[in-house]
Design brief:
single chain; 219 residues; alpha/beta; Rossmann fold; 47% helix; globular
Length: 219
Amino acid sequence: MSKADRPFVAVIGGLSKLDTAKATAAKAVAHEIGAELAKADFGLVVYFSADDSLEPHVVSGYVPALAEGAGAIRVRIAEPYAGQVKFKEEATTRKELFDSDHFPGQDWEAPFYRSLAEEQGFKGERVDAVLLLGGANTTFIAGQIALARRLPTLAVNAFGGSAGRIWSQMAQASPGKHPAWGTRSAEDFVKQLKQECEEAATRRKEARRREQLLTNMIA
């Protein structure tokens, strides 16, 4: 797959509401998902690097599983947190993977949600899919945006939180299409996410073709 065709998945969630045992298990699951995203040639979009955020644990699985020359990580930081968001892999193994930029202004919420809500979000970048695990209000709103946009979404329900609520909505809307976490391998879940991204890309291509045909007819 060319770099231009690589789908990017926004990594959104948090572990702060989990007890120690569940948080440890959630970090292991995040690491496993990160490795499978790397093998499937996804790029990542990440926002925070604190230990109680989902992102650093996905990144820790993603980076070592990448094939040579593969992978990309967009670090999109709210301006008030510029300089505070750092992943250990940036300073050690694969600094070239990371593309860091920050949303303008002091309000992080509006540009963060717009980056998910708009077809061409922050600086024209497209978010192709969403990964949700745990989390609270921000994760729930992000999940609602993803569902409204029909973005391919992997919501891990095993640890509850807002990701569990989003998974319940998805499972009820499409019975049998979104099995509970643990009933299949992480590899299978990521394969399904990749297939859904490819189907969405096909729909976008067809929409552009129809739009061009209409333009030509009008002309």
